[in-house]
Write a structure and sequence with these properties.
Its main location: membrane. The protein has 179 residues and is an alpha/beta fold. It contains five helices and six strands; from the N terminus they run βαββαβαβαβα. The protein has a six-stranded mixed beta sheet, sandwiched between helices. A hairpin with a 2-residue loop joins β2 and β3. The chain is globular, with a radius of gyration of 16 Å.
């Protein structure tokens, strides 16, 4: 019998307004050059990690990020184990839009693990959203928050690994409870 290559496969989707840096976050985590362009429709990357001696394949999906694509993104919730809600700390509207994305996800993917990312935190002089505002949003929705920067390599890997660990722990608990 062939050896299983992966112990787990987790589909993680990045959701947020266009231009908040979802593609850059995906590419940075996957060790690829940042693309600094917008996805039309959907883009995804695969990345392998190891947690607690288990090999995990992450399928990281970037939905289009434009409100007109919200109906398209509904199909991408199927099978998702985790969601990263992304806003740009230099763009207040992206935080305001995040409330709609969170509401939409609550209808589509009730049992997913979720975190919020405040991206581009290296741009302190251009900041429009305070760290406290992001923390309040995360607390309101019962999520963790990370301020991230692909330019400064800040918290990107930590955010992905934290979400992957939360998914794995939830799956382990579910498996243990079903025995």
């Amino acid at each position: 019998m062939a050896k299983k290559e992966w112990d787990y496969t987790f589909k993680i989707i990045l959701i947020g307004s266009q231009g908040v840096g979802k593609i850059d976050l995906m590419s940075h985590f996957a060790g690829q050059d940042q693309m600094n362009n917008s996805a039309i429709g959907v883009d995804f990357k695969l990345e392998g990690i190891e947690l607690d001696g288990k090999k995990i394949k992450l399928q990281i999906w970037d939905t289009a990020g434009q409100e007109k694509f919200q109906t398209i993104s509904s199909s991408y919730f199927r099978g998702a184990k985790g969601i990263m809600f992304v806003y740009d700390v230099t763009n207040r509207k992206s935080l305001e839009d995040l409330a709609l994305w969170i509401e939409h996800a609550a209808e589509q993917a009730k049992k997913t693990e979720r975190i919020i990312l405040g991206n581009n935190c290296e741009s302190e002089s251009a900041r429009q959203v305070s760290k406290t505002e992001g923390e309040e949003l995360a607390k309101k929705h019962g999520m963790r928050i990370f301020e991230t920067s692909t330019k400064a390599s800040l918290n990107v890997e930590k955010a992905f690994l934290t979400l992957a660990r939360e998914i794995k722990e939830k799956m382990d608990r579910t498996e243990k409870n079903s025995l």
